[in-house]
Design brief:
The chain is mostly helical and about 200 residues long. Helix content is about 50%, strand content about 0%. The chain folds into 2 domains: about 35 residues, no CATH class; about 150 residues, Hypothetical protein af1432. The longest helix is centred in the middle third of the chain and has 14 residues.
Length: about 200
C-alpha cells in the first residue's frame, strides 16, 4: 500500500500543475514532454490495432480490407519501393471503416508528420485517382482526377493506383503478413520529420 501511495505521489510530482494554460510554466511543459516520451512508439501499436479491425470486413469486395491493404503494400515492396512508400501503401485505406466518406484524407493525416510531401499528396488524393477505375459505375465522373492533370505529382499518384491499388483484390495472391510490415512502420514513424510541435532547424 505504501509503495502504491509513493508511486501516486511521484506521478503527481511529474505532472503539470496548471488548471489553465495561461498559468503554465516551462517546468510544467517539461513534465508534459517527459510524460509523452515515456509512451513513444505506442501510436504505432494503436495503428496496428486499428489495421486488425479491417480483417474480415469485406465491404462487398472479393477480399477483406486488411488483405487489400497487405496486398497493396506487398506489391509495392516486391516492386522495390522504399519503406516509406510501402508503409503508405499499407495504410492508404486505414480510414475505410472509421471515416468512409473521406478515408483517403485520414490515412494521409496519420502519416503526414513522417513522410514526404509527395507521398502525403499521393495518399490524400488516391481516392479520387482510384475513382478512374470505377466512378463511371456509380454515375460519377471517372476523370475527376483530371482537375490535377498539371500537378507535378499527378503521374506519381496515378501509378500508385494502377500498379498497386486497383489490382489488389486477388484472393489467390500471396500477401506478406501484417507482422512483416511492423518494423517498417516503426522505422518510418519513429520520429516526425515535420510538425508544429518541432522547433525550426537553424539555417
Amino acid at each position: 500500500m505504501a509503495d502504491g501511495t509513493a508511486h501516486s505521489q511521484k506521478e503527481a510530482q511529474e505532472r503539470a500543475t496548471f488548471t489553465a494554460m495561461t498559468d503554465g510554466t516551462e517546468a510544467d511543459w517539461a513534465a508534459i514532454a517527459r510524460a509523452g516520451q515515456a509512451h513513444r512508439g505506442e501510436h504505432v501499436d494503436r495503428i496496428l490495432s486499428h489495421m486488425k479491425l479491417l480483417d474480415n470486413d469485406y465491404g462487398g469486395f472479393n477480399v477483406d480490407r486488411l488483405e487489400h491493404s497487405l496486398q497493396t503494400a506487398t506489391r509495392a515492396f516486391r516492386a522495390g519501393q522504399d519503406e516509406e512508400y510501402v508503409v503508405c501503401a499499407l495504410l492508404h485505406d486505414i480510414g475505410d471503416i472509421l471515416l468512409p466518406a473521406s478515408h483517403a484524407e485520414l490515412g494521409a493525416a496519420i502519416l503526414k508528420p513522417y513522410i514526404s510531401e509527395q507521398n502525403h499528396w499521393m495518399l490524400e488524393k488516391h481516392g479520387i485517382f482510384q475513382g478512374y477505375y470505377f466512378f463511371q459505375h456509380l454515375g460519377l465522373d471517372r476523370d475527376m482526377r483530371d482537375a490535377w492533370r498539371d500537378h507535378p505529382w499527378f503521374e506519381y499518384t496515378a501509378q500508385f493506383c494502377h500498379l498497386y491499388d486497383q489490382n489488389s483484390f486477388d484472393p489467390a495472391y500471396d500477401s506478406m503478413p501484417l507482422e512483416a510490415f511492423e518494423p517498417m512502420m516503426r522505422r518510418v514513424m519513429d520520429r516526425p520529420k515535420h510538425s508544429i510541435y518541432m522547433r525550426e532547424k537553424a539555417a
